[in-house]
Each structure stands twice: as structure tokens, then as C-alpha cells.
């Protein structure tokens, strides 16, 4: 089965050419004493595929979570098409940002088609009464939803498996199904968290084609990935996160040629190490905690 990513119409949620789709400013996310993301700015424009890379633990997924309402950033602001995002993930999806997850999150015991239909719930206008009464409006909406879901399954190459249980799909196809489900919410921006994790080279190549086809439908894409070949083939721009901070941003050639990026991936020290400030902050917090503990009789052995 091949992915039908040839000619595509513009997606319903497509952005206007030239429009800034995502504008994240000064995003910081702290978990107690740990600053996982520090003052990160990132924009994604209509028609762009932007990559977000960085070593393990750099803060990439945390940043995604801040963009999708899963986390409320400690500081900073995220705008989608000019409007500040609501602090709830379902509202963010309704606004036009869809995502996939690092670990596949399908409904394993539902069919492939049902999984995509679930992804359409933010676009279904029929209310509770209409659903309960199952009037003509409900049936029309349901038929339209199924037709769109089948179109999306065809787009990712899974139409022939619409009635299969999701759990019976091979791994690569489960990832495709996640993408189809995300597209079902008719986004203007799609966030992909490690879409090729666990894939063989052929599946990775097919995913590359799929992402280009999604971009060609007018949906901007922001992608986290550890496969550098995939990222540098695919992306118009790449941002590098190291220890929560954006180290470099530019086109593939600029990023690949940057010594600090090479050093960060090889684990060598580099100039203006973004971890220095954090280490100092943590040491200061620990010193303060020691002072407080030492001042409280009987607390010496609690640590
Ligand atoms: N909910 C949380 N509570 C506390 N710490 C967290 C939480 N989520 C992430 N972290 C920490 O924040 C840092 C960044 O983690 P994150 O998962 O965002 O990195 P990543 O770049 O996506 O890593 P990977 O490439 O391994 O997926 C890590 O030190 C992680 O342990």
C-alpha cells in the first residue's frame, strides 16, 4: 500500500501565505527548581516546515506541551494566527493546532476509521440533543465526517485498513494513523513529536514525503526529531535547543555548520554554555535551602 500524497487541495484550516502561524515569545517552563525551557522565542510561518532539535532532555517536548495547552508556561506568551492561545489543550486544538505524541496514543481497540473520527470532534457542530435524537442534521454531519475521515485515510495510505483495529496495524502505520487523526481536526499548524521514531529507512522516507504533502496542503509543520538526515532534508528552518535554551536557529546549512551545535551533540563544552546560568541558579537555591535547614533545630537529618 502506498501513500497517496500526489495532488491535494488546500486544507480547510490552511493559513494565508505569508501569515505568521505560530509566535512563541519568551516561553519559560519551570518544574520546581528545574528550568526545562528558558526564554525561548520561535515563529512558524505559513508554508514552512520548521525543525526543533536538541540532545535528550533539552526541553523539546516540554516546549511542545507549552504550545499545545498541556502546560501553561511559567512565563511567556504563545500566539496562533495573532491570538493568544487558550490554556486548555482541547481549545488549542479547536483553535487550529494539532499534534502527535512521542509515544503513540491511539485508541487501540477502536478501528482505524473510528480513531480518525475521534479526531474530528472539535469540528463537529452537532450538539448533545442532535446526537441523542439522531435527526437528519446529525446524520448529515456524521456522513460528512466519515467522508472526510476516509479522505484523510486515503491521504496517508490507510483507506484499505479503515475497519482494522488500530492495535493490529504495524508500527509505521500506527504513526501514519496518528497523523491522520491529528489532521482530522483541520489544523493550520501540525506539531509532530518524533514522527519517525522506530521506523525503518523506507518508512522514514515515506514520512518525509507525507510531511511535504501536508505542507503543500497549506498546513505549517513544526517537527521534533532525532534523525538529523530527516530534519535537514525536510526543514526550511531548524532551531536547536540545548538545556532549555535556543542555541542556534537557521537553515539546514547554517545549523549543520555551527560549531556549538556539533559540540552540544558531542557533549563538549562550548562558549556561552546555556547551562551555566542554570547551574548557578540551582547552586544558589541549594545554598539557600541549606541555610534555612541549618537554622531549624532538629532538621539536620531530614535531607
Ligand atoms: N512534568 C515534568 N516534571 C518535572 N520535570 C520534567 C517534566 N517534564 C520534563 N521534565 C524535565 O525537563 C527536562 C526537559 O525534558 P523534555 O522531555 O522536554 O526534553 P526533550 O528534549 O523532549 O528530551 P527527549 O529528546 O529525550 O525526548 C528534563 O530534564 C526532564 O526531566
UniProtKB/TrEMBL annotation:
Keyword hit for Transport: yes
InterPro entries according to UniProt: AAA+_ATPase, ABC_AA/LPS_Transport, ABC_transporter-like_ATP-bd, BCA_ABC_TP_C, P-loop_NTPase
Domain ABC transporter: 22-268
GO molecular function, a single term: ATP hydrolysis activity
GO biological process, one term: L-valine import across plasma membrane
Keywords: ATP-binding, Nucleotide-binding, Transport
Entry GO CC: plasma membrane
Name of the protein in question: ABC transporter ATP-binding protein
Organism expressing this protein natively: Streptomyces longwoodensis
Amino acid at each position: 500500500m502506498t501513500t497517496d500524497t500526489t495532488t491535494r487541495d488546500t486544507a480547510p484550516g490552511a493559513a494565508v501565505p505569508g501569515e505568521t502561524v505560530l509566535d512563541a515569545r519568551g516561553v519559560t517552563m519551570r518544574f520546581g527548581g528545574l528550568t526545562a525551557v528558558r526564554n525561548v522565542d520561535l515563529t512558524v510561518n505559513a508554508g514552512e516546515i520548521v525543525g526543533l532539535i536538541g540532545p535528550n532532555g533539552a526541553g523539546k517536548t516540554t516546549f511542545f506541551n507549552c504550545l499545545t495547552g498541556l502546560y501553561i508556561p511559567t512565563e511567556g506568551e504563545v500566539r496562533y494566527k495573532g491570538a493568544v492561545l487558550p490554556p486548555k489543550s482541547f481549545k488549542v486544538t479547536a483553535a487550529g493546532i494539532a499534534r502527535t505524541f512521542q509515544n503513540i496514543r491511539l485508541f487501540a481497540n477502536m478501528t482505524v476509521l473510528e480513531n480518525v473520527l475521534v479526531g474530528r470532534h472539535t469540528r463537529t457542530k452537532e450538539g448533545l440533543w442532535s446526537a441523542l435524537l439522531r435527526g437528519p442534521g446529525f446524520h448529515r454531519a456524521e456522513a460528512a465526517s466519515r467522508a472526510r475521515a476516509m479522505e484523510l485515510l486515503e491521504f496517508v495510505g490507510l483507506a484499505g485498513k479503515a475497519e482494522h483495529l488500530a492495535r493490529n496495524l504495524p508500527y509505521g502505520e500506527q504513526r501514519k494513523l496518528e497523523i491522520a487523526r491529528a489532521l482530522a481536526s483541520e489544523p493550520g499548524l501540525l506539531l509532530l513529536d518524533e514522527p519517525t521514531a522506530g521506523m525503518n529507512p523506507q518508512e522514514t522516507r515515506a514520512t518525509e514525503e507525507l510531511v511535504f504533502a501536508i505542507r503543500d496542503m497549506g498546513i505549517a509543520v513544526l517537527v521534533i526529531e532525532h534523525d538529523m538526515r530527516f530534519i535537514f532534508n525536510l526543514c526550511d528552518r531548524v532551531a536547536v535547543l540545548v538545556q532549555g535554551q535556543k542555541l542556534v536557529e537557521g537553515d539546514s546549512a547554517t545549523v549543520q555548520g555551527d560549531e556549538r551545535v556539533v559540540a552540544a551533540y558531542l557533549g563538549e563544552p562550548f562558549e556561552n554554555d546555556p547551562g551555566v546560568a542554570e547551574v548557578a541558579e540551582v547552586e544558589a537555591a541549594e545554598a539557600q535551602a541549606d541555610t534555612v535547614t541549618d537554622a531549624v533545630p532538629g532538621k539536620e537529618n531530614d535531607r
